[in-house]
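We both want to read discrete structure tokens more fluently, so let's practise on a single case. Would you supply a protein for us yourself, any chain you care to pick? Would you write everything just below, so we can both look at the same thing?
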Amino acid sequence: MAAYGGKNVVITGGSSGVGFAAAKLFADGGARVLITGRTRDTLDAAREQLGKRAVAVPGDAASLSDLDALADRARAEFGRVDALFVNAGVTRSVPFESMTELVYDDLFAVNAKGAYFTVQKFVPLLREGSGVVVTTSVANVKGLPMVSAYAASKAALRSMTRSLARELLPRRIRVNAISPGPIDTGILEKSMPVDAAVQTRAQMTANNPMLRFGDPAEVAKAVAFLAFDATYTTGAEFPVDGGASQL
């Protein structure tokens, strides 16, 4: 029998990177998967790659009306949900002195507010014994330059993971966090000039204890563990960072 046969999984930010890798792992394992994303073309391409087990719904994690629509769609498609991967997020590299209110608000609107209310909207759909996994970041425990506001938004998620885990215990819903380090999602190449991306990649590789970037599939396996197999674990943060936060 397929590892996730009969399971229903919702993944925000599931059209690329770690979210897509998790969606593929679950869909290949027999689950039905609903993914979200803000870019229609990317979302459609992901849906085509995932095949008939996947449903793609456009939406902005920072919009509560979009989250309401997402929960309604999940209810219509699945009825009940077995795992929720709260992965939608944005990152910005801005020096502290140059940070603007607009960028700061966007980071917290998507990364913190969006994640918080995603869980709230889906609680009525989550089965007893289900797992919620939230994406934090190694940045929330490291003093890294250029990402102070991003790191703070991810630290807020770490705190929420504990609080929501405690509040949802009576419903027997587990809430845990996945904390990725440098993962080879292609975001560097998309977000900066080629020379800067090459230099940044080399520096991040040299600074990592394992001397490499992680693969999105490695993070997806950890997500699956927390979502389904870690039945005696809640409120925890699981680093998948090549040892960056531990060594």
